[in-house]
Amino acid sequence: KYLDEVKAAGAFKDGDPCQPSAAGFSVSVRDGRTKTSDGPMHAQSPWLNGYFVLDCKDRAEAEAWAAKNPAAHGGTVEVHPILSL
Fold first, then answer.
1. CB–CB of 16/43 below 8 Å?
2. Which residues lie closer than 8 Å to 66 by C-beta, 6 or more apart?
3. Contact at 8 Å (CB) between 65 and 6?
4. Contact 40, 22 (CB under 8 A)
5. Cα 43 to Cα 37: distance, rounded to the nearest angstrom
6. Structure pTM?
7. What is the pLDDT of residues 19-33, one digit of tens each?
8. Quick check: 4 and 49 in contact, CB under 8 A?
9. Domains of the chain
10. Rg of the chain's alpha carbons, rounded to an integer?
11. Interval 17-72: pLDDT, tens
């Protein structure tokens, strides 16, 4: 229902579910050396379940869509503005 509503409003741009956090890995570079670690970056932190890219005119609209997301009810939806390159 949420996805249908976002699409009908013309705000939906992209999105997909993510594989389990154990399938991910972290990459860092220090002093020119690359280090990779399997699994989530912080074992105790919440995991990324999926993502939506929405075209919102301002923060208020982004907050409204985030509040309607079923994941916000009992969980947390994290919102990140995207830089255009």
1. no
2. 72, 77, 79
3. yes
4. yes
5. 12
6. 0.67
7. 777 777 777 788 999
8. no
9. 2-72 (3.30.70.1060)
10. 16
11. 877 777 777 777 889 998 888 876 666 666 677 889 999 999 999 999 999 998 88
Would you state the structure tokens that stand for residue 48, as one six-digit string? 């990324």
- Residues 41-50: b if buried by 16+ CB within 10 A, e if exposed: eeeeeeeeee
Two tokens, residue 21: 């956090």
User: What are the backbone angles phi and psi of residue 17, rounded to the nearest 5°?
Assistant: -75, 160
3-state secondary structure the chain: CHHHHHHHCCCEEEEEECCCHHHCEEEEEECCEEEEEECCCCCCCCCCCEEEEECCCCHHHHHHHHHHCHHHCCCCCCCCCCCCC
